[in-house]
Amino acid sequence: IDWFFDELDRKIDLVIDQLLARYKVQAAKTVKNYPFLMGQGIWLDSEKLGPNDTVGEVLKHGTLTAGFIGLAECLKALTGKHHGESQRSQNLGLEIVGHMRKRMDEATEKYGMNFSLIATPAEGLSGRFVNIDREKFGVIEGVTDREYYTNSFHIPVYYPISAYEKIRLEAPYHPLTNGGHISYIELDGDPTTNVEAFENVIRFMKECGIGYGSINHPVDRDPVCGYTGIINDECPKCGRSALDTDENGEVIGIERIRRVTGYLAGTLDRFNDAKKAEVRDRVKHMSINDPDAPMEQL
Ligand SMILES: [Zn+2]
């Protein structure tokens, strides 16, 4: 673990250098290179610049952000258990992410720039990195044996855990990731049938310090009548069967909306294999008809 933190510091040094190098390249450009962003005063202070001025003084108001994925796989590799499985791993996870944040804060002081730490889903990298690592280190259980690395500090999507426990474990990472973060709860059933249970989850998120929380629940839409809600075999509004066919004999399907890394998608066709696999592996954290032990946990 000592070696891990040394190696983490070397990687963070590299990221800070890279962010500063990119900033230097961008800062050397002039206002006329960004006719909309700078010429139209979109960026703070850009109205004070002429067309031939360089934009460094304006771009410094932006952020230089380091992101991470796969805390769960990292903890598995270091201790044999991820943070959903062991409190010791959770403590180490907080130490790792807290260290990364501290390094970003130090860089902010040192360079007078807005360095921040982001909890990223890394849509493309989540599959690419695990492929690279599997080639290098082989198949390691809980680390490289899936098609994707787990989103940021999340408890793995395939790990069965209650909504409340997931919120409680992920919440402390939110204030550490000042560049952005989100926690998801996968809910089974139609939230409009038990608004109180739905509200309890939101309140619990707030009490735990979740900065940005999301509840994913199934949403179906009948393209024929426009009804939106849960549709099983029959549309509750127009009464048609989900297997009805059009004049060509094609089934007029029900659109089933799912959420993938923040995108609401009717179909998974356009997502890469890693994200498709992640959606396939997801377990539900609570059922709207059977919310386990809600508010007494507060
Ligand atoms: Zn209908």
What can you see in these coordinates?
With about 300 residues, the protein is α/β, with parallel strands linked by helices. It has one domain (about 60-295): Anaerobic Ribonucleotide-triphosphate Reductase Large Chain, CATH 3.20.70.20. About 35% of the residues lie in helices and about 15% in strands. It has helices spanning about 1-25, 55-60, 70-80, 85-110, 125-135, 165-170, 195-210, 275-280, and strands at about 65-70, 115-120, 185-190, 215, 220, 230, 255-260, 265, 285. It has a 4-stranded antiparallel sheet, with no helix packed on it. It has a 3-stranded parallel sheet with strand order 4-3-9. A two-stranded parallel ribbon has the order 1-2. Helix 1 (about 1-25) runs parallel beside helix 4 and helix 3 crosses helix 4 (about 85-110). The radius of gyration is 23 Å and the shape is globular. The two termini are about 35 Å apart. About 30% of the residues are buried. The model has no long low-confidence stretch (mean pLDDT about 90). The structure holds zinc ion. Zinc ion (ZN) binds next to loops.
List the helices and strands and how they pair.
Layout: H1 2-27, H2 56-59, E1 63-68, H3 71-79, H4 87-111, E2 114-119, H5 125-137, H6 163-170, E3 183-188, H7 195-208, E4 213-216, E5 219-221, E6 228-229, E7 255-260, E8 263-265, H8 273-281, E9 286-287
Parallel strand pairs: 1-2, 3-4, 3-9
Antiparallel strand pairs: 5-6, 5-7, 7-8
Helix pairs in contact: 1-4, 3-4, 6-7
The structure holds zinc ion.
Zinc ion binds at residues 222, 224-225, 227, 235, 237-238, 240.
